[in-house]
Amino acid sequence: MRLDVFTQLPHAFAWLTEQRPLAGILGDGLELRLFNYRDTTPLRAGQVDDEPYGGGAGMVLRVDVVAAALEAAYGEAPSHRVIALTPQGRPLTQAVVEELAGERQLTLLSSRFEGFDERIVRQLCSDAISIGPYVLSGGELPAMVLLDAIARRLPGALAEGSGEHESFSTELAGGLEYPHYTRPAEFRGWTVPEVLLSGDHARVEAWRREQSRARSVPS
Ligand SMILES: C[S@@+](CC[C@H](N)C(=O)[O-])C[C@H]1O[C@@H](n2cnc3c(N)ncnc32)[C@H](O)[C@@H]1O
Fold first, then answer.
1. CB atoms < 10 A from the CB of 31, how many?
2. Nearest-angstrom CA–CA distance, 13 and 148
3. 19-36: per-residue pLDDT in tens?
4. Per-residue DSSP letter, 163
5. Residue from 136, 141, 146 whose mutation best tests the ligand 1 pocket (most atoms within 8 A of CB)
6. In what order do the strands lie in the sheet with 60-61?
7. 104, 92, 181, 73: which is closest to 141 by C-alpha?
8. Cα three-residue angle 184-187-193, rounded to 5 degrees
9. pTM (2 decimals)?
């Protein structure tokens, strides 16, 4: 997959690309490119945003700046999905992650301050995604959330089998994962469920399925 992120803060992504799962598949299953709107802005002195028409606080990312950035990267209108990261987008779920992980190429647009000129979302994007019903200061964290979640679903990102029985997976019928325990078997009188120490794989499986079901019942 080729994943392009447009941002005002490309350096913010450095730590993520040094960690697994991204570090393990960069240049192999995943090609990540970071674009700074400032590098291609048609305005002077690296300007990318402007005051909102109608007045009000904050600065708005300009449509001509984003159009120039996309044109410099792709030449013509991209045929792949271009996603605006905005609290007003459709909610990010594991199902959306699976959908996006199946694409060959994706573009993520982030903004800061007051957000996007609406024409960016309506005319230049084919999708808009929110990572949750709260407002962050910029689209860099949402882009990284999406990047990490997608990268986990790409071949070679995780050890064999470790991404299969996770919360929200089809293997767990979209429910939550069962609890995990590790050594010591007892700590301050807090014990590990006996079944997990039994060595009986069928009982362990049944217990895990039941735990997953019980946790997934909406309260
Ligand atoms: C301060 S926010 C703008 C919020 C906007 N004025 C509103 O009220 O809907 C600045 C930028 O951060 C990003 N952002 C903030 N919260 C987000 C969320 N929950 N999901 C996705 N992106 C978000 C978006 O790129 C957004 O344009």
1. 13
2. 11
3. 888 889 998 999 999 999
4. T
5. 136
6. 49-50, 60-61, 115-116
7. 92
8. 70
9. 0.94
